[in-house]
Each structure stands twice: as structure tokens, then as C-alpha cells.
Design goal:
134 residues, alpha+beta, Immunoglobulin-like, 2 domains, four-stranded antiparallel β-sheet
Length: 134
Amino acid sequence: MKALFTMKLFSMTLLVGLVSFSLACGYSKRVTPPAPGTTPTIAQLNPPSATANNSVQLEVDGTSFAANAVINFNGTKMATTFVSATKLQTTIPATAIMNAGAVPVTVTNPGTPGGIYGGGTSPETSAPMNFTVN
């Protein structure tokens, strides 16, 4: 019984020593948070409106669009074509413009991944601009 107690005490002492040694060596899992990304801005929508139940080719003009930026129509990500850092295009299906009213359009620049210890950039979304459905 005494040998079992001595063995447990030795094991516990060894474990505490290893943990202390690891911490003393500066082992750390610090993670760098992502930096803010570039925020896109929308200057105009072309066309600015459409008739309900009709699909429309939408052009979004603005600034700071990333090559992988996405147009969000009423909160839904649309298949987006990058034309330039100031122009994006998408086709809005008729099913997305069935009801008359104002529909918010935004552009999101996705974030970039960081390394093993974090970093990168966070995604950024523009202020909304309303598209009018008649």
C-alpha cells in the first residue's frame, strides 16, 4: 500500500514538474485577432429599380470592391461578377423581386485567413442602398 502511495506521489510530482517546465519555457497559444478589412462603398445601382416578377441584370458601382466581393440582395448572397474595384454585376432572379417595395443591397468583401496564430482580415460589408421593386 505504501508503494502505491509513493508511486502516485512520484507521478503527481513528475506531472507538476513537466507542466511547470512547459510554462516556464514560454509555451503560449496567443492568437492575433484579425485586422479590419477594407470596407466597400456603394455609389449607385444600375438600374435602381425593376418591375416585380422580372429578373434584372444589376450593376453595382462604388469603391474598394475586392476581387472576391459579393453582392447581397435582401440579405442573400448572389453570384457576383467582378468587373473592377469600382464595378460588380449580378443577375437578380424574378423570384427575388416578387413584392413591391424597397430591397436593401450591400456588398461584402470577404475576410482573408490568417496563419496558425491568427491574423488576416475580417469581412466588411458596405452600408445598404435600396433597390426599388415596382
